[in-house]
Each structure stands twice: as structure tokens, then as C-alpha cells.
């Protein structure tokens, strides 16, 4: 079992400028409309999209991983779908992940 109380974590940091971060947040909002399934994981979220969305999902995921190093973002293609997993061992990352995938948003 991982004891997070004994670990030291760097502050959460996104390397994007405010206007670029806002534009990328809008891309996530657009992508969320095409989500087939959303599953809560112990340290994040898994989203499934139709395979036709794979290039778009992979592009946005790669850019998010580049600017937010505290997140672990992976994509996996299957025959008919693409799976996107966004996780983090950082204890303060959950609200960031929730915001990216729209959990709690109306």
C-alpha cells in the first residue's frame, strides 16, 4: 500500500500560458461530448471513445501530458475504440483530472 503521507510532492504546475490553457480546456470540453464511457479509477479516470476519434484523442492527450507533467496520460487503440487514461499519484491532482474530463461539471 502506498503511504502518501510520507511522500513529498512538487506543486502542481502547467506550463501553458493562460490563453493557451483556456483554449486547450475548450478542446477538452469539445472532446467530452464524444465520450462513450467514463470510469473512475483509483488515481484518475478512464474514458472510451469511438475509434474514429483516435487521432483527436491522441493529439490532445499528448499535448496535455507535455504541459502537465504531474499527470500520466495514456491512450490505447482497440478494434473499435480508443481508451484514454488520465491518472496521477499526486494527491492534489484529482480536481484537475475531474476538470479535464468534466466530472462535476453541469
Question: Which terms would index this structure?
Answer:
3 helices, 106 residues, 4 strands, alpha+beta, four-stranded antiparallel sheet, 35% helix
Descriptive notes:
The protein has 106 residues and is α+β, with helices and mostly antiparallel strands. The protein has a domain at 37-106. It is built from three helices and four strands. It has helices at residues 18-32, 54-67, 94-101, and strands at 35-41, 44-50, 72-77, 81-87. The chain has a four-stranded antiparallel β-sheet with strand order 1-2-4-3, with helices on one face. β1 (35-41) and β2 (44-50) form a beta hairpin. α1 runs antiparallel to α2. The mean pLDDT is 84.
User: Which stretches of 5+ consecutive residues score pLDDT under 50?
Assistant: none
H and E order = HEEHEEH
Helix content: 25-40%
Distance between the termini: 35 Å
Q: Give the overall average pLDDT.
A: 84
Query: Biggest sheet, open or closed, and with what strands and sense?
Result: 4 strands, antiparallel
| Rounded Rg | 14 Å
Count helical runs.
Answer: 3
**How many strands appear in the DSSP assignment?**
4
Amino acid at each position: 500500500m502506498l503511504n502518501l503521507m510520507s511522500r513529498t510532492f512538487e506543486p502542481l504546475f502547467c506550463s501553458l500560458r493562460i490563453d493557451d490553457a483556456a483554449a486547450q480546456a475548450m478542446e477538452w470540453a469539445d472532446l467530452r461530448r464524444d465520450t462513450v464511457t467514463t470510469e473512475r479509477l483509483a488515481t484518475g479516470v478512464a474514458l472510451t471513445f469511438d475509434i474514429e476519434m483516435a487521432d483527436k484523442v491522441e493529439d490532445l492527450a499528448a499535448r496535455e501530458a507535455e504541459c502537465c507533467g504531474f499527470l500520466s496520460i495514456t491512450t490505447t487503440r482497440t478494434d473499435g475504440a480508443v481508451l484514454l487514461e488520465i491518472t496521477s499519484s499526486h494527491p492534489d491532482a484529482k480536481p484537475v483530472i475531474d476538470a479535464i474530463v468534466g466530472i462535476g461539471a453541469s
